[in-house]
Amino acid sequence: MHYLPTVLPLWLLYVLLTGNGEVSNLVVGLLLAFGAAVVIRPLRYPMPWRRAPGALWAAGQYVLILLWDLAQSGVQVTRIVLSPSLPIAPGVVAIPSGCDSELATALSAHAITVTPGEMVVEIDADGTMYTHCLNVADAANYVARAQVMRRELLQRIFV
Question: pLDDT per residue over 19-41, tens digit each?
Answer without folding.
Answer: 888 999 999 999 999 888 888 77
